[in-house]
Amino acid sequence: SQQGEEDPQALSIQEGENATMNCSYKTSINNLQWYRQNSGRGLVHLILIRSNEREKHSGRLRVTLDTSKKSSSLLITASRAADTASYFCATDAGDDMRFGAGTRLTVKP
Amino acid sequence: AAGVIQSPRHLIKEKRETATLKCYPIPRHDTVYWYQQGPGQDPQFLISFYEKMQSDKGSIPDRFSAQQFSDYHSELNMSSLELGDSALYFCASSLGLRLNYEQYFGPGTRLTVT
Do B107 and A95 touch (CB under 8 A)? Predict the structure, then answer.
């Protein structure tokens, strides 16, 4: 199985609701990054959290990291239809970047 | 703010042809990464360069080669193209090696091999 596995695989919510996506990994990491990918477009970097950080905020995004559980979560608050996309976590363990399968988020207007 | 530039954005080639993809990192970024994302697949790491030297190698086929030039742009050369090479090829850049540095992706080059 691969590093940086996200769950749920698909998430559908109403506009204005919060969306939480989780990412688990297996080995020790240097940092964990969350990316967004719109259909047919490149990955867009959202936020990086270092292994010695526990929480990080960026606008409506909140990322947490629990190295003891080898997991991270991405919370999008007050979601908008424009947040509809796939969200990937990627772990950096010093050898290479490992992308997870992604969570496909659908925000309904 | 300037972003990572990839060219061309779309490329159509026939089997056994060659292709060259280019990546221009964010100004002052000295590290470039290449990823390949097949249809419905996760982006897969191919290769990376730091200060014009190969720093890491992933699942890059032997038919592919890449290099980073003195101005830090990078080129991915693909020979003897196969149908399975059809994919979206991402380039990303960062300042310094990946360790604790954010990585910024370009929009990708969509390669179609017919």
Answer: no
- C-beta of residue B63 within 8 angstroms of C-beta of residue B113: no
The reply to whether B89 touches chain A by the CB within 8 Å rule is no
The pLDDT averaged over each successive group of 10 residues in chain A (109 residues) is: 59 96 90 77 79 96 96 97 89 66 85
Mutate to test the interface with B, among A43, A48, A95, A98 (most CBs of B within 10 A): A43
